[in-house]
Amino acid sequence: MSASGSTPQSPAWGLVLPPAVAPARLWPSVAAAEEGGAGSIWVTDRTVSDMPWLETMTFLGALAARTARLPIGTSIFALARRNPVLTAHAFATAQFLSGGRVIAGIGLGGDRPAEYTLAGAALDRRGRITDEHIDVMRQLWAGGTVDYAGEEYSCAGVQLCPQPETRIPIWVGGQSPASFARAGRSGDGWLPAFLPPEGYGAAWAHVCESAVAAGRDPGAITRAVYCLAAIGRKDGDAEAVLDPFLRRVFGAPLEQLSFACLYGTPGRWVDQMGRFGAAGAQHVLTFLVTADLPSDVDLIVNEVLPQLAGTPVLAGA
């Protein structure tokens, strides 16, 4: 049985695009993922970096234009360092341009003081700010004129147009008990990171407790997981790409962060995704660290997804 108490099912694969890939290689990869069985496609969020990193909402708008049917989203968007009215407008615009396919993946964005300083936002209050900003955005998306007076943010007489014709779901990301509680209180979805399959059920129980305390049905919350990922045809290929990235971005080798990663051959991917599915995850989002995005997307589409769909234990047998 899964963490939700239901029979395990194959999780959908979500492609989290690398921070910056040349358009000539990026867009064919996006098309291959959409046509080849991906469940969703996502963009990341970071401003201060020592490597090229595309701006999130610009990237999301371009992705809306380059896809036709898949859900697209942010994984994850550091809401507390943005103006919530401008952010609500940006998400509503992407929702309009995509025909209603946007998911707002929201979180705190990791411990990056420089990004909060740059935005003039308080790092030590980012949790409370995030809660208020979620509330502001939902009110703006619901229509009418919004007057909001919170401890962290206030606005008066604000109205967005056009309004989203379909609801923009908010998936709450993070890897802390506070983020699990936030997902239970206010998330349409739960998107934890740095969480192995073995710990998924216990963390989900925390989300459920928070949801019940808030008078919500935990069964209405979509369950996902976010993994740093790399794939290779042979043993060692994925590790050779992923380890330098982790050392550069997180200052730690793969051996210390392997619990947070999905990597290896297609067979190893199938096994790991299957274990997340058995633990209750409905979506496995992979931030793909790659030296050749088109080739790696083709490998996932042709050798991971068919195996995943054909694995009896994941099909409920």
Explained architecture:
It is a single chain. Helix content is 44%, strand content 18%. It has 11 helices and 12 strands. The strands form 2 sheets. An 8-stranded parallel β-barrel has the order 1-2-3-5-8-9-10-12, surrounded by 7 helices. A two-stranded antiparallel ribbon has the order 6-7. The radius of gyration is 19 Å and the shape is globular. The N and C termini lie close together (11 Å).
Topology:
Layout: E1 12-16, H1 23-36, E2 40-43, H2 56-66, E3 72-74, E4 77-78, H3 84-98, E5 102-107, H4 113-119, H5 126-142, E6 146-149, E7 154-158, E8 170-174, H6 177-186, E9 189-192, H7 197-213, E10 222-231, H8 237-250, H9 254-257, E11 261-264, H10 266-279, E12 283-288, H11 293-309
Parallel strand pairs: 1-2, 1-12, 2-3, 3-5, 4-5, 5-8, 8-9, 9-10, 10-11, 10-12
Antiparallel strand pairs: 6-7
Helix pairs in contact: 1-11, 2-3, 3-5, 6-7, 7-10, 10-11
Measure the end-to-end span: 11 Å
Number of domains: 1
Specify the structural class: alpha/beta
Helix and strand string, N-terminal first?
EHEHEEHEHHEEEHEHEHHEHEH
Beta-strand residue percentage: 15-25%
